[in-house]
Automatic annotation (TrEMBL):
Residues 40-138 form the Methyltransferase domain. This is Methyltransferase domain-containing protein. It comes from Alloacidobacterium dinghuense. CDD domains: AdoMet_MTases (cd02440). GO terms for molecular function: rRNA (adenine-N6,N6-)-dimethyltransferase activity.
């Protein structure tokens, strides 16, 4: 918690939350993962609440890859989860970072990025960066603190599904799932 608050004070817009994701929000997100034998990528993992839920739900540690931009949170994640791969970097370059590690794509990408704090162009650039790391039939899970869909999904050729709202989170959050429209069920 101390680390989270320090990070929040350093870059409030980049952290975008007052406290780490709640266990309820983390569990709902982790329950959406379907990855077969593919890797799961988590971006903006922060203190690791969702990371922990993913491991608790049975995702093997060697199939979880994490990208976080704040070096002090990266150091914390290394220590807390010594068996997963954690890289310091920007989610916008997710595909290139994965490629350096010999991973060509992932089936599920979980984003804790404070996407609503970004302006339109930056939001689309980050979204494109994340989609580049996804398999064609992969899914992006993103939560927001506003009720509206965070991306103009239709215009971008995406299918958006509202997974649910979690009241037990500060603030309450809505979980979204995005797939490429051509592959949506
Ligand atoms: C809402 S907080 C993390 C919440 C996390 N689930 C938790 O419980 O701690 C958002 C995180 O995204 C990170 N972040 C923001 N922009 C990023 C980017 N472009 N690439 C990677 N990480 C980023 C921040 O450093 C912060 O740790």
């Amino acid at each position: 918690m101390f680390l989270f608050i320090r990070s929040l004070l350093k870059s409030p817009l980049a952290v975008g939350a007052l406290v780490p994701s709640s266990p309820q929000l983390s569990r709902l997100i982790a329950s959406q993962v379907c990855c077969g034998n593919s890797h799961v990528l988590e971006v903006g993992a922060g203190t690791g609440s969702i990371t922990e839920a993913l491991l608790n739900l049975g995702l093997p540690a060697n199939r979880l890859f994490v990208i976080e931009r704040d070096p002090s949170l990266v150091a914390h994640l290394y220590k807390r989860f010594p068996n997963i791969q954690v890289r310091c970097g920007d989610a916008e370059h997710a595909a290139a970072i994965l490629c350096e590690e010999g991973i060509s794509e992932v089936q599920t990408l979980i984003s804790s990025l404070p996407i609503s704090n970004l302006n339109g162009d930056n939001r689309i650039a980050i979204l494109e960066g994340m989609m580049n790391a996804l398999a064609v039939d992969g899914q992006l899970i993103q939560f927001t603190y506003t009720a509206n869909c965070p991306f103009p999904a239709k215009r971008l050729g995406l299918h958006a599904e509202r997974v649910g709202r979690v009241w037990m989170n500060i603030p309450p959050a809505v979980v979204w799932k995005f797939t490429r429209a051509s592959y949506a069920l």
